[in-house]
Design a protein that fits this description.
This protein has about 240 residues and is α/β, with parallel strands linked by helices. Helices cover about 35% and strands about 25% of the residues. The chain binds adenosine-5'-triphosphate (ATP) and magnesium ion (MG).
Amino acid sequence: MTALIVEDLVAGYGDARVLHGVSLDVGEGEICAILGPNGAGKTTLLRALCGMVRARGAVRLGEVSLTGRSPDAVARLGVAHVPEGRGTFMPLTVEENLRLGAYVRRGKSDVDADLDRIYTYFPVLKTRLKQAAGSLSGGEQQMLALGRALMLRPRVLLLDEPSLGLAPLVTRELFRIVQAINEEERTTVVVVEQNAHLALGIAQQAHVLETGRIVLSGTAEQIRADEQVAQSYLGYRV
Ligand SMILES: Nc1ncnc2c1ncn2[C@@H]1O[C@H](COP(=O)(O)OP(=O)(O)OP(=O)(O)O)[C@@H](O)[C@H]1O
Ligand SMILES: [Mg+2]
């Protein structure tokens, strides 16, 4: 079954076009990696999927069209977005941020049970509940951003550069948790990542985006195995 279908997506800012017809499918319960150099349009693609930038073309969540919907409506339908820079509310406490994550959810029951579920993935957050989000370390803030997204009980999780600015050890731990969430909750994940090696380590499928176009698609193994392609498109070895 296909969770997310993207067809010929064209998007940009004002008159500047950034995505020039992006098409891809993400299978239900799959992890899909979006790789590519700086400025390729990876962030813009995630923004277009969640309604933050206007786009032409089609985006469907299963049978439901997401095209033209507001970010709130897309979230309510089960797509959670962890943006570049994490999107947590710095002056609010960890617990307030997590509770806000459930805010747009249709059924508000079981919020406490969901909090407990999130503490099993991120035990460190439970020890920081009354602390302002702004006082957390970078890794803890990324965990909070992920936890907040999970409070939506999303069907699809969109992650934009979760490794940005984090130490390698923390990044590996985060990716391990993303993989656990995917396996235990069957959450479909689309992860944008500069660290191709890490992303391909947990993904089943991957797409390489370059100047707003998908230039390469395949299984994670295929992309990883194609060293020449990796060097020319990604600019480094994977
Ligand atoms: N808010 C904005 N207004 C105008 N142009 C923007 C805006 N955000 C991004 N762009 C432009 O769109 C293009 C694609 O940017 P985008 O952030 O999607 O790339 P990216 O692949 O996520 O890059 P990076 O790896 O650096 O995060 C760039 O040329 C960028 O300057
Ligand atoms: Mg980006």
